[in-house]
Amino acid sequence: MIKLGVNIDHIATIRQARKGEIPSVVDAALICEKAGANSITVHLREDRRHIQDKDVYDLKKSIKTKLNLEMSATDDIIKIALNVKPAFVCIVPEKRQELTTEGGLDVKKNKKNLASCVEKLKKAGIVVNMFVEADIEQVLACSQIGADGVEIHTGKYAKFYKENGRNSLNFKEEFERILKASQEATKNKLLLNAGHGLDYDNIKHMCKVPNLKEFNIGFSIIAQGIFTGLRTAVKDMKELINKG
Ligand code: PXP
Fold it and tell me: Residue 99 pLDDT > 90, yes or no?
């Protein structure tokens, strides 16, 4: 069964609109867990636009499942991760101006820096995944730098699905790239996760990818939760994943 990590960054986006204390990210995390989330994901961005340092510490103390910290490979954030010791980190590229994480990491080009980051985090007992595009060479580079796993960026998959449909050439080609990158991950004994842009429509097709361990889904669940309540939004997504 593929697991579900729920990304609750946008609970903090709403809170930061007034810079107050509600809605509480810890309360949101506990509701997600009760509804079946297998882990809780947050992205501590360098500009702190949503999740704040205190959130990460509070979540680590309060949740019963596992904390997955998305982060850039910068010294300041690595220091925080080594302090918090989440179960997992996912190293992501970060640009100040982007609305969300737009692409995967270029692991091939930044092997030296990323290898040292992976080593520090693994030494602290943290499982380290790398957020990469569906690209065989990037997956192989993750294995070469000693990462534990990869999270395949499904942003293009989601975009092509929405804009052109499942029968379009660009969707089929992207899905083929995801299958090949996933095979490469399995061949190199890397954990295999996927995320970005996954929603209640496109999740079913994604479940066809063999050996997936976990999805990380944020925006669509939080958006759906506005209408159905967070518990139902998580439960509905879990059900779709379990049905495959
Ligand atoms: N995985 C990673 C590494 C991400 O950076 C994000 C976005 O923060 C997600 C998954 C979740 O994407 P979405 O919010 O589109 O579901």
Answer: no
